[in-house]
Amino acid sequence: MAKLYFHYSTMNAGKSTLLLQASYNYRERGMNTCLLTAAMDTRAGAGKIGSRIGIDAEAEGFDAQDDLFDRIARRLEREPLACVFVDEAQFLTPGQVWQLARVVDDLDVPVMCYGLRVDFRGALFPGSATLLALADEMREVRTICHCGKKATMVVRRGPDGRALREGAQVQIGGNETYVPLCRRHWREEIGDRMPG
C-alpha cells in the first residue's frame, strides 16, 4: 500500500543525497521513478537535484501553479512509476501536498518528500506544515550544530555575516547563506528575541 512520506530537517543534513540514493536503488532494479524539484532552486542547474557531495540527477521542476496530481497521472499513462520523489518539498503549496496525497490514495504510487521543516525565523513553511499534517510517515534527517548537538534551526546570514531576523521566507542559498544550529545557538545568533 502506497504512503506519503516526509523526510525533514534543517539545511545541510543530506536530504537530497538520501533522495538520490533511494531513487537510484529503484532504478537499479529496473523500476521507474519520477523526480520533482522546485523550479526556483537552480543551485545544481535548472531541472536538476544536486547534493553537496557531488551527485545529481535530472528532475522535473514545479511551480506553485502546477497540478502535480495531473502531471503524475499523465506520466502514468506513458509508463509505470514505482515512486515519486520531491526535493525542496517546503516550496510545495498546501494544495500541491493534497495533490500528492491523492497520488498516494487514488493512484497507489508512493510519494517521498524531502524538505526543510522551518525557515530562518523558526516558522514552518506552508508546504512543510501541510506535510506534517498529512504524511503517513515522517522521518527526521539529522545534522549537527557546531557544538555537536542536533541542529533543528537555521540562520540566514546577511552580506555582513550577521544573522538576519527579517526578510522574505524564501531566499535560495547554500552554505554561504544558511547555517544549521541547535535551538540554543540559534537564539544566541538572533539576539534571543522571538522572531516576528
Task: Please give a quick description of this structure.
This protein has a single domain, classed as P-loop containing nucleotide triphosphate hydrolases (Rossmann fold). Helix content is 28%, strand content 22%.
Quickly list its features:
single chain; alpha/beta; Rossmann fold; 10 strands
Structural write-up:
The protein is α/β, with parallel strands linked by helices and 196 residues long. It has one domain: Rossmann fold (3-Layer(aba) Sandwich). It has helices spanning 15-28, 68-78, 94-107, 126-134, 183-189, and strands at 4-9, 33-38, 48-50, 56-58, 60-62, 83-87, 111-116, 137-140, 153-156, 178-181. It has a 6-stranded parallel beta sheet with strand order 5-2-6-7-1-8, sandwiched between helices. Helix 2 packs parallel to helix 3 and helix 3 packs parallel to helix 4 (126-134). It is elongated and about 55 Å long. The mean pLDDT is 86.
Report the average pLDDT across residues.
86
Strand order of the largest sheet: 5-2-6-7-1-8
Report the end-to-end length measured between terminal Cα atoms: 42 Å
The name of the CATH topology is: Rossmann fold
Our estimate of the beta-strand percent is 15-25%
Instruction: Please work out how many helical segments DSSP would assign.
Output: 5
Under the CATH scheme, the architecture is 3-Layer(aba) Sandwich
**SSE order in H/E notation?**
EHEEEEHEHEHEEEH
Question: How many strand elements?
Answer: 10
